[in-house]
Design a protein that fits this description.
The protein is of the alpha/beta class. The chain is about 45% helix and about 15% strand.
Length: about 250
């Protein structure tokens, strides 16, 4: 199956939209192949504000119908407790909310941007997608991340080379309780590092401390700017550590 066939067979769909590379291309493809599609962005404390802005920008670029849904992810005690399978509970909540909204709007088919490169064994959230009958056209059509980036570039989408960005909750080790306060500290720290020009990095939380992970080609710049980085991030954390095993 290819995407043209998928959208011919499913010509009215609701899309779980993140503003990332995969869901942005999926939104473009649905519109390109003539499907009636509505994009739903779930806004929680787990998503940094720039993700919402990217989603709005893409929807505007494509003249797509997009709705933002507010959800308190931490109101679920199983999510806030942050067990190993936290992603499962979080996805269940998100997609139940999406399904309710989309059905009220008349959409029977709910799709997401999971692609063929995503490893189901490493993503407990995929179990939630299966249980709630969420379709993943990119995965069903065997499109890899690399292929999606290439197709996105051809389509002129600004997200074609956007780095993958896992939700803020992934910065907190399993078993450590998630709070809005710690998520805010991580987001503020990462926003500062973005402002210095860094990309594809992570600010990991270890107790009251921050552990920074960068690609190898950025480590020298980090060391050169360590004083300004430490000065800013110590507003949020007791100490700032650099992981010398570069982030691949």
């Amino acid at each position: 199956m290819d995407l043209q066939t998928f959208f011919a067979e499913n010509n009215k769909v609701a899309l779980a939209f993140s503003g990332g590379t995969d869901s942005s291309y999926l939104l473009f493809a649905a519109m390109h192949y003539g499907a009636q599609v509505k994009a739903y962005y779930i806004h929680t404390a787990f998503q940094p504000e720039f993700e919402l802005e990217d989603a709005k920008r893409m929807a505007e670029l494509l003249h797509a119908d997009m709705e933002v849904i507010e959800l308190d992810a931490l109101s679920d005690s199983q999510v806030a407790a942050n067990p190993e399978n936290r992603c499962y509970y979080c996805k269940i909540n998100l997609f139940r909310e999406l399904r309710e909204h989309s059905r009220q709007d008349g959409y029977a088919v709910l799709i997401d941007g999971t692609n063929a490169s995503d490893d189901a064994g490493d993503r407990p959230g995929m179990k939630a997608l299966e249980e709630l009958s969420v379709r993943s056209p990119l995965r069903e059509c065997q499109l890899s991340k690399e292929e999606i980036r290439g197709l996105s570039k051809e389509a002129g989408l600004f997200t074609w080379n956007k780095p993958a960005y896992a939700c803020l909750a992934t910065r907190i080790p399993a078993g450590s309780r998630i709070t809005e306060e710690i998520l805010s500290k991580v987001e503020n720290s990462e926003n500062f590092l973005f402002s210095l020009g860094y990309t594809d990095f992570r600010v990991r939380v270890i107790g009251d401390n921050a552990k920074l992970q960068f690609p190898e080609n950025q480590l020298k710049q980090v060391i050169d700017q360590r004083k300004i980085i430490i000065g800013e991030l110590k507003k949020y954390f007791k100490s700032v550590l650099l992981d010398m095993e570069s982030r691949e």
